[in-house]
Each structure stands twice: as C-alpha cells, then as structure tokens.
Write a structure and sequence with these properties.
The protein is mainly alpha-helical and 70 residues long. The protein has a domain at 37-70. The protein has helices at 21-47, 50-68. It starts with 20 loop residues before the first helix and ends with a helix.
Length: 70
C-alpha cells in the first residue's frame, strides 16, 4: 500500500427497512381502537347517549376490520 495515496472512501451499506415496523403501527392502532371502544362504551352506559353508542360501535368495527387486513 502506498502511504502517499489518498484514502479510499468507505460507505456504509444502505439501510434496509426494519422488519416489523408496520406491525408495531398496526398494534398501536388496534390498542387505540379498543381503548376508545372501552372508553366510549363506558361513557355510553353512564350517559345513555345514542351518539356515544354509535361512536363505540364505529371504533369496535374499525378495530375488527383493521385486524383482518394484512
């Protein structure tokens, strides 16, 4: 090796996407949907409001339909 030669540039290999990153987002979305279902469900029972009942059904449907997608 010639001590007077310029140093060669070394580059890191390109980063690959982390496996399972989408799964983490899906799990967080599912936990959020079911937490909202529980929260609005208890509020609907306490206040006896039809609007809260529909919101509860919507969040539970959203969580269940999101579970079936891959």
């Amino acid at each position: 090796m010639n001590p007077y030669s310029p140093p060669t540039e070394t580059r890191d290999p390109p980063l690959e996407p982390v496996a399972g990153a989408l799964d983490v987002k899906r799990r967080l979305a599912l936990v959020g949907c079911f937490a909202a279902t529980i929260f609005f469900g208890t509020s609907a029972m306490f206040f006896q409001s039809w609007l809260l009942i529909f919101v509860t059904v919507g969040f539970s449907w959203l969580g269940l339909s999101y579970m079936r997608t891959k």
